[in-house]
Amino acid sequence: MNRIRPLEARKASPLLVSLSAVVLGIIAGCVFILLIGKNPFDGFEKILFGALSSRRRIGNTLGMSTQLILIGLSVSFAFKTGLFNIGASGQMLVGGIAGSILAYYLPMDMPRVIYIPVIVIAAAAAGGIWGFISGLLKAKFNVHEVVSTIMLNWIAYWMVYDFIPRFIIDPTISVKSKPIPLEHTLRAEWLREATGFSTLNYGFFIAIIMTVAVWFILKKTTLGFSLKAVGSNRFCAEYAGIKVSSSIMISMAIAGALSGLAGLTYYCGYSEIMEMGKMPNEGFDGIAVALLGNCSPAGSFFAAIFFGILKMGRGSLAATGIPTEIADTIIATVIYFTATNVLLSAFWNGRFQRSFEKKEEAVSYALKAAGDMRCASDLSRKEFDELAKKGRKLMKEVR
Amino acid sequence: MESWSVVSSIIPSAIAYTMPILMGALGGLYSERSGVTNLCIEGLMLFGCFSSAATIVKLQAIPGFSYTLAIVIGIVAAMAASTLLSLLHAFASINLKSNQVISGTAINMLSTAVSLFLAQTITGSGNITIVRGVIRSDIPLLSHIPVIGRLFFSRTYWTTWICLALWGISWFLLYRTSFGLRLRACGEHPSAVASAGVNVHRMRYIGVMASGLLSGLGGACILVTYAGEYNAGSGINGLGFLAIAALIFGQWKPLGILGSTFFFGLCMTIANMGKVFPVFQSIPAGYLGMFPYAATLIALILSSRKSAAPLASGEPF
């Protein structure tokens, strides 16, 4: 009996809380669909059909999830340092415009092995600078990052509004940039053929690499450790000799770079044009991804695919007469429930506690029946479970 | 005299642009002074804008129904709807003690999604355009005062005067009554207030609900004064976040936020009407659009360092 801790009830895991939030979000979606007098099962069937029913649709769903994964990672990364990056939209825009301008001006005969790293680095750098500005303002001037990133979103919005006509305008449609030729996007011929010409592109692999990289930085490096230390208690971290203000700036710069990459995959892979006067919603969906994924890299990855399914599948809702915004409503409800995770974990902890107490009762009954003098708290988990089963059977027989 | 004509056309618009931001910032003031960080002003204002648009459109479609009465009912509906929405934030941040920044963001997203969803079911396109907004009118006597009359009292919206009255009432309530003292104390030292026998949770609920009420009014003002439509695409263009910035720039004080919101209103006017004036015509549209947000950032850099934020704002109790 080498147990150190006494047996106690199970605690709600983050995964369970996230899954409950998803279930509640879907229930809320059903309620909204019922409110406008439509059939919710029909709606969800159409969403799944639209997202997963063919190779092409699955490819499109993954193509959509690509930017959500990257933004989810961006928000999670900043969150680990105690920063809330809601400027992903702006960082996406600057990353996207940097990539688009380069795609337009770099020579067409440049080999892909050189071209792709160049635009990837450019987009990450542009987004990184955008994130770094918020970090600098937070560290040096105490400007709350939520307000500064929102302002930077709008500054990026108007900057793109100015840059598109200046550098990459499509003269026939004067509100959009000229489509980037296929060889200069992140799309690849073999990927397109394998998935029935979907939007799936090299960006998805960038997203996978970044998921691993973020996990590695956070778990295995000193940098990750000090960033997390600042996030959990900045005063304690400062006392331990970690430079808080440079940690804030580095964290925001990396978060910005990840969102910049998301912009690249969105504007030069998923789509091949940029529009004037359009704020990408994906920046805000990424917050939901990060929160639902409990701010862990793997969590963000799977949460992004879930939201990708919702966002791609809603296109097929038109036939049912349900507005496509139902997907955003579900996403927003999911975040509200993740934000109020206290409620959900209290609910599950309460349930676990009650079932544990019942088990305990059964165990002591079984012990008493067997004339065993040991106490329920002295048992190992295995014995405990066995005796609980036995005790429950005995109690039933007596009744 | 060209500059005079520019000024005399900018100032009245600037006042119209100021009022929604002022209401949002004043709402934020109540909430933050009571100790709840409120980043969902944007969502609350947007929801107010949408609910008033939906109500007014339905009422103005009834033949013979007074347009003005429809507007009044629309504004009240907006205030009620946003107050209800703010309860969600209050519940999450006061009772559940969850992260107030995340809860605020969730409310923002929820408000955008739900209002778009409902707008789609109401009109099909998602944009709701009302038949007629508030008609501008001159204030008798006062509008004849030279210079000031032209700038401040002619062609005004009546909603402007309601907003200003609410600002005055709020100042009195927060700084001249025991209720205000308690509310502000909840944002500084909640445990001290609690030991004096005041229900901190109730005061904070009042603070958050007041922010819902005022932000709803602000959102309705956008609709019935200069916008005239609820736009599904652009929403309210981040005005709610400008209001939060104005609150910080105004150092969480009523007079301060009056000044800072007027400054942002002026910036918004220049951004939106810039093309009309020959003075600004050489500036590209992108730079004009960027101007209010860049000005806000600079204002924040200047004012945030010696920030006088309520001590316990964002701290669950």
Overview of the structural elements:
The complex is a heterodimer of chains A (399) and B (317). In chain A, 73% of the residues lie in helices and 0% in strands. With 399 residues, chain A is mainly alpha-helical. The model of chain A has no long low-confidence stretch (mean pLDDT 87). Chain B has 317 residues and is an all-alpha fold. Chain B has one domain: ABC transporter involved in vitamin B12 uptake, BtuC, CATH 1.10.3470. Chain B is globular. The mean pLDDT of chain B is 86. Classes of the chains: A mainly alpha (399), B mainly alpha (317). The A-B interface holds A 32, 36, 84, 86, 137, 141-144, 146-148, 150-155, 157-159, 161-163, 284, 287-288, 291, 323-326, 328-329, 331-333, 335-336, 338-343 and B 39, 88, 91-92, 96-99, 101-103, 105-110, 112-114, 116-117, 120-121, 237-238, 241, 244-245, 248, 284-287, 289-290, 293-294, 296-297, 300-301, 304-305, 307.
Quick overview:
The complex is a heterodimer of chains A (399) and B (317). Helix content of chain A is 73%, strand content 0%.
CATH topology of chain B: ABC transporter involved in vitamin B12 uptake, BtuC
Helix segment tally of chain A: 16
Which architecture of the largest domain in chain A per CATH? Orthogonal Bundle
How many domains in all of chain A?
A: 2
Share of helix among residues of chain B? Answer: over 70%
Order of helices and strands of chain B: HHHHEHHHHHEHHH
Radius of gyration of chain A: 25 Å
| Uncertain stretches of 5 or more adjacent residues of chain A | none
User: Assembly type of the shown chains?
Assistant: heterodimer
Measured by residues with Cβ under 8 Å of the partner chain's Cβ, the largest interface is: A-B, 45 and 45 residues
The helical percent of chain A reads over 70%
Number of strands of chain B: 2
- C-alpha Rg of chain B, in Å? 20 Å
Which architecture of chain B would the CATH scheme give at its second level?
Orthogonal Bundle
User: Globular, elongated, flat, extended or rod-shaped: what is the shape of chain A?
Assistant: globular
Secondary structural class of chain A: mainly alpha
- Mean pLDDT over the residues of chain A: 87
Give the CA-CA distance, first to last residue of chain A: 34 Å
